[in-house]
Amino acid sequence: MRTVVAMALAALLLTSCVAQELEPIPGSITYSGQPRTKLTKSPVGSTLNHYFYGPFGERIQETYVIQPDRSLKLVARERQDIFSALYD
Hints:
88 residues, alpha+beta, three-stranded antiparallel sheet, 1 helix, 3 strands, Transmembrane protein
């Protein structure tokens, strides 16, 4: 009985760690809600990248996927320090 409870608890904790969605930050396309214009010519499921600079000077790249209702879903975010590009 204890093993079953421990396994269920471990599965619950693992699911809660994996299933978190990214929240928009200032500079994100969807920070103040979905854009007013719809991407009517882009196929559903296609991705687009958005680059901007964050509040601490880091360069941020966000990846969005176009949903069937033509809204954008934020699926990935990558941060890069602006000074690291100088030393590559």
